[in-house]
Amino acid sequence: MPWTLLESVTENDARLELYSRDGIFMIRANGLELMSGFCHDSEMALGQLAAQLAPAREPRILIGGLGLGYTVAALTDALGTAGTITVAELSGAVIAWFQRYVKPSVLPMVAGNLTIIRADIAELLSAGHAYDVIVLDVDNGPEPLVRAGNAALYSQAGLAALRAALAADGVALLWSGFESEDFAARARAAGFAVACKPFSRARPDLAHYIYALGRSRAALRHFA
Ligand SMILES: C[S@@+](CC[C@H](N)C(=O)[O-])C[C@H]1O[C@@H](n2cnc3c(N)ncnc32)[C@H](O)[C@@H]1O
Known about the structure:
By secondary structure, the chain is an alpha/beta fold. It has one domain: 3-Layer(aba) Sandwich (Rossmann fold). The protein contains six helices and eleven strands. The strands form two sheets. Strands 7-6-5-8-9-11-10 form a seven-stranded mixed sheet, with helices on both faces. A four-stranded antiparallel sheet has the order 1-2-3-4, with helices on one face. Strand 10 and strand 11 form a beta hairpin. Helix 1 runs parallel beside helix 2. The radius of gyration is 16 Å and the shape is globular. S-adenosylmethionine binds next to strand 4, helix 2, strand 6 and helix 4. S-adenosylmethionine (SAM) binds next to strand 4, helix 2, strand 6 and helix 4.
């Protein structure tokens, strides 16, 4: 059965499309698959890892972006009602599509500690908050895909802003479809301790990666 195009929009210089097939959804950005409900194990692992790394008492967690909500669903499932979770999503259409089509199957119950806002994650990183865990899954890795402006997030200045937005023992997690030595080197230069874990699925040629950037080396002690 082929994918059915449900909606499309051009926002922030990107052509976004929502497709469905057999009750499963997929978002394409500029013709490339950004997120598919047929393949969400590593996005859920990302959310579970964020919960594991969060402090037990009142964790403050920031996620960018929403996509189809699998990372957020795994995080809220693991964390329950503790602390606060803020999701920054750049696209108003993605939020509307999530509410209208995706939420009933991915995140039917929204906990009171979860807030989804329409915002560029970069704005929240420079707002003076201190997060215990920041999760970045806005492109397909540390290279801009959704919008050219996202390149700034992975630059040395962007990584310095990311580090400044973390609490003393805080960790940032980044989902990636590829390994990037250049990114790891820039993160180290910005003062992070860096670790990277491959997430292998049934097909080894489709390994995904989770980068953990610790504000301190001690912050990565639970990232096995
Ligand atoms: C790969 S998807 C996220 C997938 C998500 N982890 C999931 O489980 O479905 C990337 C999302 O980030 C959003 N995004 C892209 N750039 C952003 C930015 N600068 N700030 C906030 N959200 C952004 C996109 O609109 C898209 O919804």
